[in-house]
Amino acid sequence: VINAYIEKAVVEYLSRLSQNLKNMGFLGQLLVLGPSGILGIEAVREKALYTLASGPIGGAAGAAYLARLSGIRDLLTMDVGGTSFDVSIIKDGVNVERHQTEIMGFPVLMAGMDIRTIGAGGGSIARVDAAGLLTVGPDSAGADPGPMAYGLGGTEPTVTDAALVNGLIDPDYFLGGEIHLDLDLAKRGVNDVAKKLGLSLNEAADGILSVARNNMTTATTEILVGQGFDPRDFAIMAYGGAGGIFAGNIAKDMSISRVIIPPGPGVFSAQGILSMDLVHTYARGYARSMDELDIQELEDIYKDMENNALQILTREGMSRDRVEFARSLDMCYAGQHYYIETPVPNGELKANAKIEINNSFERLHEIRYGHRIEAPLITINIRLKAIGKIKEIPMTEVKQGKGIPQSAIKKKRKVYLEGNLMDTQIYERDKLLCGNTIVGPAIIEEPFHTTVVMPGQRLQVDKLGNLIIRTGDA
Fold it and tell me: Which of 42, 65, 136, 187 has the lowest tally of Cβ within 10 angstroms?
């Protein structure tokens, strides 16, 4: 119903856009961001609903690409922007997906990256409720009027105001100095909270940041532990405008030993879209007992789905050698009302494929739910993901150096960390070299992002320009 509701407007708009680009001399291909990858116009004509995918998908895809280049298999992505905190999982180098999402309160059976979002970002508003408790978000001041420090008419303190008050952000270097933040306005707003709670100015600002961080940690724990994963097995990749402000503390709270801040974190989601492949997903209902399942019938269905997908990808400019398929089955124990997507071997299915599929399901069930059951297995759906590989974007390596360049070292300032004002060294990220090591407390500044290295943590720059923070935990 939702697809039918939006189809006419979406298809007509994209058709006009495509024709106008051709009239202007554009010779490339118009692509659209989808829930698992990018799509050609023909695919959107069939499923306009796929265009409802949002920007954070690009960040999650870019994180998976960068993680593979860096040799990292298991990763949490954290995108902290002005209004929201978006978290997702990369397991064995692949983005974890789900097959049901929600749009405007309606459940939608659409496969896509599993990204969870909460209202926690730089613009999240801090208030003291009727019970005297400090709350942060989900309401946001947005960009206009924005935080009080913007000086555009905001009347309530936000996370950005709190970070400014405690010295995490330089008021003269916001957006690389394009905007000057008003520290006095930020203090006025945070001081209102401080009076209501009976705290000092810095304590109140720290409280605002802590509540926001705790909300982020809770959301991360739910998506991770809720699917049977151990946080200690993962690293964090943080980006967006404020990911680096919170990631070190979140990692410490969750006993995660490593945080990665990629190059260009402020625009990482946009860059990540450039690393995405053409992806089409297909599903067919297939209710069978595994004992009765006919392997040849299953193989024939997969071949038919793959041929249909190949025709679409060919029309979108893909040659056969650049197309890959990923097969899976939705499976469960008889009597269960939830299923697990279980991988199926590619290529001609052999007679022993049932054993391999069964073992994969049992292993995944044990990881997610902690046990196996002595019960028959059944299938629910056949799934296929068709991937058209696009040329990978090149990554520029950072120049190697022994010592930290003097030009990268900025003036120290007082920063409120772990309950104390500390003299904290500030560094310019763009001037750091591969191999440079920084011991916390420290702050790494760049025009659209700030990275905080907590006391006891150590940061190192790798050859791709990633900032790697070691937390000292397990």
Answer: 42
